[in-house]
Design brief:
The strands form two sheets. The chain has an eight-stranded mixed beta sheet. The chain has a two-stranded antiparallel ribbon with strand order 2-3. It is about 40% helix and about 15% strand. Helix 7 links the parallel strand 7 and strand 8. It is of the alpha/beta class. The chain has a single domain, classed as TIM Barrel (Alpha-Beta Barrel). It starts with 16 loop residues before the first strand and ends in a 14-residue tail after the last helix. The structure holds iron/sulfur cluster. Iron/sulfur cluster (SF4) binds next to loops.
């Protein structure tokens, strides 16, 4: 109940109670991201987080069905720390259905299969993982701290442990220079990670980030709206997840769409084509957000 801002959560966690068990991001190096640049990473003392859960229970109790554990890569917490939090969450919120958090591939890979299974069994059943791109040079440029194969392995191990994964990709992440490769390789990575949930966001170049400095020097150029929609089209057309709920409802996107892949692929492609042809309106620039 006590927060150190700024605070972020995925759109689908809008109705979750947010427990801020870590402050900032342990990586904090991705060139496009300024979410936690103002915060030095630290783990909040367990007692503080347990107190917060107690306060939330007193205020919301039965109404809490979802808990999102912040900030940027909360899976980095030690497994024992997590198990304490998950036990307290179950105790305080009788209607709890799921606990989720953002995770880097490295957070997953640093845990053993046994630890991942214990966490899933205790209620941590959904991870939001943002490789942003499947293109090797783009991943390096973004300083994601993990490779294509790391992301595939992290997804495989998390799902084998009983967790669902939500994969986040970033339109425009390869710039104009690697737009095609970014879209094709991202589609391939989605197929290989085979997530239950898939979200596409659109890159916004934020002032004072390394990405903005690259842009200022002419080393990075964001594709225009039609280039970004073209990437989205390629990703939807080429990726082959077994069954994923797909969304572009994040405020950063020009075209909010959704559906199930593969079932709704054709319908989604038709909407993107209509947007590319100017037959349906795009979200006005001033309504877009980060
Ligand atoms: S891992 Fe996530 S929160 Fe951390 S710097 Fe990268 S994008 Fe930002």
């Amino acid at each position: 109940m006590r927060y150190e801002g700024p605070l972020y959560r995925p759109p689908s966690e809008h109705n979750a109670y947010i427990l801020q068990a870590t402050i900032g991001c342990s990586h904090n190096l991705c060139t496009y991201c300024d979410m936690y640049r103002s915060k030095a990473f630290r783990v909040r003392p367990l007692e503080e987080s347990l107190e917060d859960l107690k306060m939330a229970a007193a205020r919301y109790g039965n109404r809490v069905e979802k808990v999102f554990v912040a900030d940027g890569d909360a899976l980095i917490l030690d497994t024992d720390h997590w198990l304490e939090l998950l036990g307290a969450a179950r105790e305080h919120f009788p209607g709890l259905r799921r606990v989720s958090c953002y995770a880097m591939a490295s957070n997953v890979l640093e845990k053993s299969d046994e630890e991942l299974r214990a966490l899933a069994k205790a209620g941590l059943t959904q991870l939001y993982i943002g490789p942003e791109s499947g293109d090797g040079p783009t991943l390096k440029r973004l300083v994601k701290g993990a490779t294509y194969d790391d992301h595939v392995e992290a997804a495989r191990r998390a799902q084998a442990a009983g967790m669902k994964i939500s994969v986040i990709v970033l339109l425009g992440a390869g710039g104009t220079a690697r737009s095609q490769e970014h879209a094709q390789e991202t589609a391939r990575l989605i197929t290989d990670m085979d997530p239950q949930f898939l979200a596409a966001l659109t890159l916004t170049v934020i002032p004072d980030t390394p990405m903005a400095r690259m842009q200022d020097k002419g080393l990075f150029e964001l594709p225009d709206i039609y280039g970004l929609l073209g990437e989205l089209r390629t990703i939807v057309d080429v990726c082959r997840p077994t069954e994923a709920l797909f969304r572009t409802n994040h405020a950063s996107n020009h075209l909010p769409i959704g559906g199930r892949l593969p079932q709704d692929r054709q319908r989604i492609l038709e909407v993107i084509d209509a947007a590319l042809d100017g037959r349906i309106p795009l979200r006005p620039e001033h309504f877009r957000g980060l």
